[in-house]
Design brief:
Elements (H helix, E strand, L loop, with lengths): L1 H13 L5 E2 L15 H14 L7 E7 L5 H4 L6 H4 L10 H4 L21 H12 L7 E7 L2 E2 L14 H6 L1 H10 L4 E5 L1 H9 L5 E3 L7 H13 L2
Parallel strand pairs: 2-3, 2-5, 5-6
Antiparallel strand pairs: 1-4
């Protein structure tokens, strides 16, 4: 699986498209702490995936990276603030994400003193951990791996990936799934479910926790992990 994992990360880093930020290759000139930021994010991702390879029982699949999450952490649905240890009050520790390396911030402290935080990340991580799911038992990713942003609004914005962008990301999505062939795929939200089904990828679907969906998400994911 190491070869498949390394192949996946190489494909991920090689992707480039207008209006899309690649956290593992691109530098956010306005908000990154230095030109080393993509290397830091790649290190985060490598540690995260390595600690779950051969162990993960569930893949939670969202739509795309957002600027408050993976843009700076390098990990889908995972905020920089989690990695910096500022979410322990919500039951989420940096050690839940990975333990083999020390996490580092990649955004400038002047932009967000405690790092960027993403509500969806807090809900997803907090829900699973509070249910007693071991961190290595789940891995989080997106059907479109990178961060699509609105060029008119700048890097600190989000938008939906286009159909062409989704199509261009399919090889990387399939490469990711090949790293975790035994894991049960769970689509987080209708957009992810539609994309997975279009590729004939079997999945369960749960409500996306955004926009008032946190309660339904917890209820549905709870039934899946409990086997009910």
């Amino acid at each position: 699986m190491k070869a498949k994992r390394d192949h996946f990360i190489n494909l991920l880093k090689d992707f480039s498209s207008p209006g899309v930020f690649n956290p593992w290759n691109d530098v956010d000139a306005e908000n990154d702490i230095s030109g080393e930021s993509p290397l830091i994010r790649t290190g985060h991702l490598h540690a995260y995936l390595t600690e779950r390879t051969g162990k993960a029982k569930y893949i939670l699949m969202g739509e795309a990276i957002g600027y408050q999450g993976g843009h700076f952490s390098g990990i889908a649905m995972t905020s920089e603030r989690i990695l910096l240890g500022h979410m322990k009050g919500k039951g989420i520790g940096a050690e839940d994400v990975f333990t083999s390396i020390s996490p580092r911030r990649t955004s400038r402290e002047s932009v967000r003193p405690n790092g960027f935080t993403e509500p969806t990340a807090s809900i997803v991580w907090g829900s699973l951990l509070n249910m007693g799911v071991a961190p290595a038992d789940f891995v989080i990713w997106n059907t479109f791996a990178w961060h699509p942003y609105n060029p008119a609004k700048g890097m600190l914005s989000n938008r939906k990936p286009t159909d062409d962008e989704l199509a261009s990301g399919i090889p990387v999505l399939k490469a990711f799934l090949s790293v975790f062939p035994e894991a049960k795929v769970i689509a987080v939200g209708k957009v992810a479910e539609k994309e997975l089904e279009s590729l004939a990828i079997d999945c369960l679907e749960v409500r996306h926790p955004a926009n008032g969906g946190a309660g339904k998400f917890r209820q549905q994911i709870g039934k899946i992990v409990s086997g009910k």
